[in-house]
Amino acid sequence: MVREWKLEESCAVFGPGLKELEAAVHLYVNIPSVQIQLQEPGMGGKKVLLDFLQ
């Protein structure tokens, strides 16, 4: 299954001036799931979690 989304919509909390994000991808085998976490650089930055449960 292929998923498609617009990051502009999911990342609206970051604001227009942001130049870079940190990303982490979590793959879970026991429950077919993928999570992508996007975060502002540095500790305590805003986060967005994109969760794709198959």
Q: Your description of this structure?
A:
- The mean pLDDT is 82.
- The protein has one helix and three strands.
- 7% of the residues lie in helices and 39% in strands.
- It is globular, with a radius of gyration of 12 Å.
- With 54 residues, the chain is mainly beta.
Helix fraction by DSSP (H/I, runs of at least 4): under 10%
Order of H and E elements: HEEE
Q: What general outline do the C-alpha atoms trace?
A: globular
Largest sheet, strands/sense/barrel: 3 strands, antiparallel
Task: Please report the total strand number as a whole number.
Answer: 3
Rg computed from alpha carbons, rounded to a whole number of angstroms: 12 Å
The overall pLDDT average reads 82
Q: What is the percentage of strand-forming residues?
A: 35-45%
Structural class: mainly beta
Biggest sheet, spatial arrangement of strands: 1-2-3
Count, helices: 1
Query: What is the CA-CA span between the terminal residues?
Result: 8 Å
Which helices and strands appear, and what pairs or packs with what?
Blueprint: H1 7-10, E1 22-28, E2 33-39, E3 47-53
Antiparallel strand pairs: 1-2, 2-3
